[in-house]
Amino acid sequence: MNIGELAKRTGLTASRIRFYESAGLLKVVERRPNGYRSYPPEAALMLELITTAQRAGFSLDEIRLLLPPDLKQRNHEALLEALQRKITDIEALEVKLAQTKTQLVALIGDIKAKPGDIDCAANAQRVLSGVLGREVEVPIAITHGTKRFGKTSQRPSTKER
């Protein structure tokens, strides 16, 4: 079948199919004497495997290592090991995301708990110091002055010059 037919069958664009071929993922392509690509029926299955693996989070390099050159020669054990590794990676990512969510929720709570007697800059310093576990200096805004960390340098206003 030609690339247009394969694109219709798989829902992929011809350029995506060519990309997978150039990336070494789709090896079942043959060239006709006129230079056109010719794909066997199993090319559609290979493309489905590639796109399914991508949706599952596998990189193209990982997919390249897992795809057999021929569907009849697949390594069952290697595939199972790769799938198990991906599950382990996902579980580690879930833990990291849960930790990040907890930190963000706490940060929102800290920001909302702004004491009424301090301004936003002081609240930012309070929240950031709590997050970092150390005292943080925040620039002090001075009218007609320069901002510096912990110090201000007063410049004369244009009226005073």
Automatic annotation (TrEMBL):
<dbReference type="Pfam" id="PF13411">
    <property type="entry name" value="MerR_1"/>
</dbReference>
<dbReference type="InterPro" id="IPR047057">
    <property type="entry name" value="MerR_fam"/>
</dbReference>
<dbReference type="InterPro" id="IPR000551">
    <property type="entry name" value="MerR-type_HTH_dom"/>
</dbReference>
<protein>
    <submittedName>
        <fullName>DNA-binding transcriptional MerR regulator</fullName>
    </submittedName>
</protein>
<dbReference type="GO" id="GO:0003677">
    <property type="term" value="F:DNA binding"/>
</dbReference>
<feature type="coiled-coil region">
    <location>
        <begin position="73"/>
        <end position="110"/>
    </location>
</feature>
<keyword id="KW-0805">Transcription regulation</keyword>
<dbReference type="InterPro" id="IPR009061">
    <property type="entry name" value="DNA-bd_dom_put_sf"/>
</dbReference>
<keyword id="KW-0238">DNA-binding</keyword>
<keyword id="KW-0175">Coiled coil</keyword>
<feature type="domain" description="HTH merR-type">
    <location>
        <begin position="1"/>
        <end position="69"/>
    </location>
</feature>
<dbReference type="GO" id="GO:0003700">
    <property type="term" value="F:DNA-binding transcription factor activity"/>
</dbReference>
<keyword id="KW-0804">Transcription</keyword>
